[in-house]
């Protein structure tokens, strides 16, 4: 199972299906305590009733006070003492994540160095002085990691149902983010069973213990590592601690690496008992364990023989490549020693699979010694034998040209973009957890002191941000090395549109040709125009023909998603054909420092150029992503598009306007078909840009055919009191060629409407022609409408999680023809995002491009019209580039015939 969906089960309720005024509704079991910091959830654990040995079946419970039980847990040198617990989770950003687990749970220690050595450094003064000339105090080193077991499986912070969770202290990692960076990247790579995680504050028995990473445990069961075949096994390569395991669970391969049977189908591995640790495995587990040994033996023999055909028949090459790049990018020294997992499950495939990933707190430049991954300028994993003994599999794999070619191809086509964007995510992590991190280092004063990994000769930065900057710098150098090695000559902006001379796949006049989205313009990077912000009242000329799959000739209009970034003042963007006059029409409205996007249909002007004018008192960067184009010529087919130079057909702010400011809950029946607009009576639907100006309350605008008010009502533009908002609208014409604009707010609002073109009426039957639909809701994560089956049942209400990809089935939904639809027009709305971010919509089955469809800030409800080519199975992917959670709503407006 490739986890393209992150797990969540957060339910938001609202009284209306129009996306406005969305409120978080508290759960039945409301949390009783407050969060420790503003953006990070708090996990409260209380030990109660006693403690016991966890490695002894039927071990007696020692009754004690909560504090005594907690002392026993922390006094266990081998973390085999557990204490009874109750647990409470408080999420300040989403109270629906709050819960109280009042049943009998358990907490115990976990980890090797982080449990058995690091917290005891103050007792090893002779050893630490011999290595680094430094001693440590108990108050500096005693932050410990734990395993937390709830009384029953629960959905925790959007990560899905689980009973056992790990609380990583990340104490040796003064940035606190290395594990999170690596695990989120592995999930984006699509590496199966990658653990999810969330930053939390931990409080035990009323004592604040710091910032922790609450993460899923790597073990069999549920949706963690669901080993389904009776002989399925999960195995850890552990060259550090292997010999401490029972003999039945450990095995050394011919190359000398030690493997430990970590888990099996249904968890059917007996616990060690007091009878000398002797274990007899069930027959089906023993058979799977033997099959693993045989597979590894054959694999190592094929590696020695450089027999590629045998190698690829024994391993899942895709998972091995992804696993390699995670460890190479992070330069994790554990790759040859410990915490390296593999699994085999005949219900998935019969091969040896790499993963899940685990343990990255000593990666990304933790050490300066090249032996432990301290040199950012070398290929470490690929040449691991040069630096460290242990697992040499990857060094041997790269001696085969076929594996090198497979790694290069996968990096260029799938892994390069998420690797590059991992640096961007660091900024989102730090914004999310800054208050928590600062409080952590008030509790654990290690900043400015010697590092907590041997040989203790380096020092931490004096500030947490300084440590984050170290990690970021290391990541940037690793990205440069990987790009130079595996993507030479390919620019860092791999999603930029390439200059190509394409031929329209659908050549009929007025036909829409959808394209895989790519970035056509970015004034920040110099893509598509000279680098630099567009000056106040300036404009940028964008050549669109002959680029990104658009033909050099025969194009009437292009469909772009235009985004403004870093504006220094309030203003608007107007898109219009080169050689024409923009008049008063606008496509985007913005204020200083706002990032906002809108879909734009613009007629192609002289020389295949469109203009984007900045009508503002300050400068602004402009980004444009292409979604497709329309074919030029005399339109005759039903559903064909006729492009126009933009024309304003409504402005209630103008004196003498036929219509005045729209009152709360009022409507306007706007004539669209007229000589003034240029839209003829033969039109069946239109492409508009609707702007809400100076609203007197929060609300939304709904646009629909006059005489056909949808039920339920849907929204096209959401706004806050006093906020000017523009959004593209594609809508079928109603009675007498009119559309109705309904103000869903309680206060009055001014409206401006520009028409950019129209579609011929009639019943469309030909390729590339548009079929308008009555607006229909095909996705609402708040209620579960349209939510796909994945880690949860189809139709489960929940929020999208951080950096999650959700597939949305479009063909066959909301009136979209299940067999003939090739592209869809949807109004997408972000609701209640808990952090800043953006949404990318792209065809399922294609590589995610570096484009955006909607940009949003924390708590901002914002829509945008999206036109997107349908991918595999008639679906599109929705990617949430956001360190928090968000709800998403989609209303379909029509589709194009393929």
UniProtKB/TrEMBL annotation:
InterPro entries: Spore_coat_CotH_CotH2/3/7
Pfam families membership: CotH
Keyword flag Signal: yes
Signal sequence extent: 1-31
Keyword tags: Signal
Protein name listed in UniProt: Spore coat protein CotH
The organism of origin for this protein: Phycicoccus elongatus Lp2
